[in-house]
Every structure is written in C-alpha cells, then in structure tokens.
C-alpha cells in the first residue's frame, strides 16, 4: 500500500496547539529551519506537518535526530543539488513513495532536472545524463537499493565520484528509505490535496 488516498491514516494529525513542549520545539525547528523556503509546503492549512515530518513528532528525540540527519544530507554533503535529487528520486521510485516523489520532483525542477530526466528516474529507466558524476550517482544509488555495489559497479563508478560520495549515498539511501517505510506504515504516503 503506497500513496492510497483512501487508506485510513494511522498517524494522528498533530496541530501546533496540540503539541507538548518537546513536540513544539521540534515542530519549530522543522518549520523555521532550512526547509522552510522549499518548493512544497511543510504544513497544511491547519499547521499540521506534511509528509514524514508529522511522524517525527511522535517521538521527538528520534524525530529530531532524523530531521538533523536529513538536513545534513540535503544541505551539507558534497553532492551537487542535481546529484542529490537524482538519488532521492531513485529511492522514491524504488519504494513507490508518492510523497517523496511529489516533494523531490518539485525540488528537482528547481535545481534543473528536466521532465525527461524526472520521467526516466520515476520509471526506473536509464536517465539521459551527459554528466558522468551524475550518471555514477544514479547507478550507485540503484545498486545500493538492490542491496549492494558489486565489484564491477565499484570499479566503474567509485573513481568517478570517490569513496566519500559513495558513503554519502549510503546515508542518503538509508535515510530516504526509512522515510518511505515510515510513510507507508503510518499510511501518510500521499501527496497533499
């Protein structure tokens, strides 16, 4: 079950006025942090956090650690914005995550991904990329999602991007896979209305 708008949501809709102090601190950190000016709204009209962020409020200590990891992956890696969004969208496609696809296609467009590239990554097809490091990121991300990077993939792509980028991709794939699982299990994997 992914992206089913008729599925009963298992996660409570936590409005700002319903939050305890720890939840409110995390809520403010998310809504006033680096994500606030992004290409998709973080909250709905009632102030309820959308996507995985609402789930973070269920256990603020873990949710805060997750949101800090996400911010590091989004804003403090050596990946270019295009590389990062290609990798995130490969994770979204692999997990059939409607919200991740919705949010990161919007971000991807702002960093220059074309509709042809977005469609190819969404469909799991080869992405028409002339940039070798971007092609390496897509290939490595897809290998990670399949469970490992074999020796042929390693020998082909690691010299293009370096071992530190491979490490960053491992963290990115793990983080966005965690979000996809959270969205699916809590039945919140849907695009905003």
Automatic annotation (TrEMBL):
It comes from Intrasporangium chromatireducens Q5-1. PANTHER family: 4-CARBOXYMUCONOLACTONE DECARBOXYLASE FAMILY PROTEIN (AFU_ORTHOLOGUE AFUA_6G11590) (PTHR34846), CARBOXYMUCONOLACTONE DECARBOXYLASE-LIKE DOMAIN-CONTAINING PROTEIN (PTHR34846:SF5). This is Carboxymuconolactone decarboxylase. Residues 60-140 form the Carboxymuconolactone decarboxylase-like domain. One of its GO terms (molecular function) is peroxiredoxin activity. InterPro entries: AhpD-like (IPR029032), CMD-like (IPR003779).
């Amino acid at each position: 079950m992914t992206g089913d708008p008729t599925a009963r949501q298992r996660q409570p809709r936590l409005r700002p006025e319903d939050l305890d102090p720890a939840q409110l601190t995390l809520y403010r950190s998310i809504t006033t942090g680096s994500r606030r000016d992004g290409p998709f709204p973080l909250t709905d009209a009632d102030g309820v956090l959308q996507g995985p962020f609402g789930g973070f409020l269920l256990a603020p200590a873990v949710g805060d650690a997750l949101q800090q990891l996400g911010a590091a992956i989004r804003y403090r890696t050596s990946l270019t914005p295009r590389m990062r969004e290609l990798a995130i969208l490969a994770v979204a496609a692999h997990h059939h995550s409607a919200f991740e696809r919705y949010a990161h296609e919007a971000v991807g467009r702002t960093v220059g991904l074309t509709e042809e590239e977005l469609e190819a990554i969404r469909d799991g097809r080869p992405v028409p990329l002339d940039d070798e490091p971007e092609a390496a990121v897509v290939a490595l991300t897809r290998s990670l999602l399949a469970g490992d990077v074999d020796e042929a993939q390693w020998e082909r792509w690691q010299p293009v991007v370096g071992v530190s980028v491979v490490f960053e991709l491992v963290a990115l794939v793990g983080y966005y896979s965690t979000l996809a699982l959270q969205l699916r299990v809590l039945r919140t994997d849907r695009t905003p209305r």
